[in-house]
Specification:
Strands 1, 2, 3, 4, 5, 6, 7, 8, 9 and 10 form a ten-stranded mixed β-sheet that branches. The termini are far apart. The protein is globular. The longest helix has 16 residues. 32% of the residues lie in helices and 27% in strands. The chain folds into two domains: 159 residues, Ribosomal Protein S5, domain 2 (2-Layer Sandwich), CATH 3.30.230.10; 105 residues, 2-Layer Sandwich (Alpha-Beta Plaits). β1 and β2 form a beta hairpin. By secondary structure, it is of the alpha+beta class.
Length: 293
Amino acid sequence: MTRILNNQSAWAQKWPAPAKLNLMLRIVGQRSDGYHLLQTVFQFVELCDWLIFHPIEDGSVRLLKALPSVAESEDLTVKAATLLKAETACKKGVCIEVEKILPIGGGVGGGSSDAATVLVVLNRLWDLNLPVEKLMQLGLLLGADVPVFIYGHSAWAEGIGEEIKKIIVPEQWVVIIKPDCHVNTKEIFLAKELTRNSKSITISDFITGSHINDCVSVVCQYYPSVKRALVDLSEFSDSRLTGTGACVFALFNSEFDAFKAYESLKSKWQVYVSKCVNESPLFSKLKDGGYLS
């Protein structure tokens, strides 16, 4: 049995892996390899998974408790730590404890965010000192959304999501509904009905109100519960799909209005209320703890 080393109190902290929202998503083309060219805006949400890292003596990478539906070897947190070890020839080991809060398969980036937190935090706990740019390159090997979580700030993204530029957007309250379905992202991007030639826009176009998501009509056609969630949420504010879903969300100017919607919806839906932020809660913690200059 792997023995966890308990004499390093710096490891025994809870590290956030925040949710993200796609505030808009345009598909502006497709590469020869099949990947879609996108324009999107990412913003973080204070709603988080929480990770705790325990050093272990045999140099292995383990989960304290695997997710029921995911083999440990396929878990993105294990893949991230293993990739970091391979890249740096690090001999240290870790047992990763995950407190899962974010809905699985909801399109809010739970797995990608968990992987990013692993890369960012272990880079410091293992004293590897890789630059953010290198961590983002590694993150892209794990998933297209991982780099933005490593970047740590609301971002305008293009390409397949890897061309990232900082953006400042209002930090509003948000209500998120997770319909009782798991949207197959590959299915949506392969759908013949999907728009793949949207006109590219500028950041100023987005700021002045261009918030479309090109996936909405296809997702609603394939997943009626997503459409019902959008309709129910639209009674309180403009409802939107994040990425390919399944989660839908609406933004509110006040905590009061957000909680009013939450109270009305919670008997029918799996629903969350939180606050949008431009700086990732992970990076806020790193700065507060003196890990970042």
